[in-house]
Write a sequence for this structure.
């Protein structure tokens, strides 16, 4: 079984890489630093011995009868030549840099230092690296200026190299032995550290499909707590969505049951043997009404499903709300004339500044259509006093908001019912108009998809009848562009 798909990254491997890579990069740095430290440690005792021997040689330089003399005792010479590893060279130069004793090939210092001060330097002698200690001494004369004499002692560096190598071995070998152990401990610690993630995965995997209760975030690390909180939020939203769907399906089944039961009853009545022509005609009329009501309910359910799905994979377009409203009003005019209603449009014309917005034209027309159909269904009309329905589109002078309004001259909606009418399948009591109770929920859902708000108020406050005015406030196109995604 493949644990990871191609392109997926392993959190364990990535953390391990970020921990081990610096560790492995520090190894050569550690070797270099250890080498420098070992060189300094190895040079220090030999430098002190070389400095002591150079001072000892300088004390053997004397002046007699105005002449500089250097006498190296046999015992001192044996001591200088006693080292079987390194070679030791000495040099004594008089005031005129005349060789008084020693090896003439010992290189001279670049600068003359203060008398009595031993200066150590690295140099080359016969192709070999040597450590040189040089000291200038002044010899006083009774009848003249003091004479300056240079004493130098040079020694090859084989013992220092051997000692430095021994120090490096003593320091680095344990490091190379500890490095695999450190990698193993890091591996075990990391595996232990991410173990709560495996436990969380196991708890989620063992859950029943219908268990949408929040995950326990008390047993997870602090770093994982925001992820668990996000999952819990998703579970709660999913739980609410499923509850809404179950309630919606139950209400839909109940709403469809009534017209279907009426269809069955009227069909049974029409099939009676003793039914006369008038009864048969009445039954067929009821069958037609019930089928139309069932068809309307199904269409509204499909419209609500489309609204909840938003625009799908389609990208929003620039929509002219005035043009869409006028198109819907023209389509609804025949239905309004059948009920003797005065339906018209009053507002900004298509193309006017401020009536454009970003949205889905199909859904926007569905929103407008439901508001207009709702007004046609619930606005009474009579020959002496025809009902009036007006749709309008208004634009904010500053270009921030565009408002769609649909108002009617109907009986209005009580304060207690103004919030309830937006619930699915809710219908105001005492009204015999055909409807499924889904029109306004569809309006709210489409408005939510477009970041718009829906409000309901009396069209003519204080008058009888007060009428109703539904207002949908959209963000204008320029404002929508400036809003963060």
């Amino acid at each position: 079984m493949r644990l990871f798909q191609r392109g997926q990254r392993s959190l364990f491997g990535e953390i391990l890489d970020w921990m081990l890579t610096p560790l492995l990069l520090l190894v050569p740095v550690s070797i270099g630093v250890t080498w420098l430290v070992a060189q300094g440690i190895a040079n220090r005792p030999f430098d002190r011995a070389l400095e002591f021997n150079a001072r000892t040689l300088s004390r053997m330089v004397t002046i007699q009868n105005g002449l500089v003399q250097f006498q190296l005792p046999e015992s001192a010479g044996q001591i200088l030549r006693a080292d079987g590893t390194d070679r030791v060279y000495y040099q004594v130069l008089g005031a005129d840099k005349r060789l008084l004793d020693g090896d003439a090939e010992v290189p001279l210092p670049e600068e003359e230092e203060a008398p009595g001060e031993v200066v150590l330097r690295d140099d080359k002698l016969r192709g070999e690296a040597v450590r040189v200690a040089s000291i200038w001494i002044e010899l006083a004369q009774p009848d003249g200026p003091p004479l300056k004499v240079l004493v130098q002692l040079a020694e090859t560096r084989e013992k220092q190299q051997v000692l430095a190598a021994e120090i490096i071995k003593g320091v680095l070998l344990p490091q190379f032995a500890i490095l695999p152990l450190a990698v193993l401990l890091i591996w075990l610690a990391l595996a232990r550290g991410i173990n709560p993630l495996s436990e969380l995965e196991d708890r989620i995997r063992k859950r029943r499909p219908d268990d949408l209760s929040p995950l326990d975030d008390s047993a997870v690390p602090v770093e994982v707590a925001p992820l668990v909180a996000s999952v819990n939020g998703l579970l709660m939203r999913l739980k609410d969505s499923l509850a809404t769907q179950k309630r919606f399906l139950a209400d839909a089944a109940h709403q469809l049951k009534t017209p279907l039961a009426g269809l069955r009853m009227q069909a049974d009545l029409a099939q009676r043997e003793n039914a006369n022509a008038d009864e048969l005609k009445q039954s067929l009329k009821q069958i037609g009404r019930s089928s139309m009501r069932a068809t309307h309910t199904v269409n509204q359910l499909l419209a609500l499903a489309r609204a909840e799905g938003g625009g799908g994979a389609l990208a929003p377009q620039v929509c002219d709300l005035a043009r869409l409203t006028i198109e819907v009003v023209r389509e609804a005019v025949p239905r309004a004339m059948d009920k003797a209603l005065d339906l018209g449009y009053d507002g900004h014309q298509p193309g006017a500044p401020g009536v454009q917005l970003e949205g889905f034209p199909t859904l926007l027309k569905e929103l407008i259509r439901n508001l207009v159909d709702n007004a046609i269904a619930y606005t009474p009309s009579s020959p002496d006093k025809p009902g009036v329905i007006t749709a309008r589109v208004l634009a904010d002078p500053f270009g921030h908001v565009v408002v769609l309004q649909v108002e009617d001259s109907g009986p209005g909606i009580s304060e207690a019912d103004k919030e309830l009418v937006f619930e699915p399948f809710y219908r105001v009591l005492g009204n015999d108009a055909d409807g499924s109770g889904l029109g306004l929920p569809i309006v709210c859902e489409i408005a939510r998809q477009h970041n718009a708000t829906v409000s309901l108020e009396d069209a003519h406050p204080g008058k009888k009848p007060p009428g109703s005015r539904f207002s949908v406030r959209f963000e204008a196109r320029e404002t929508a562009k400036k809003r963060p995604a």
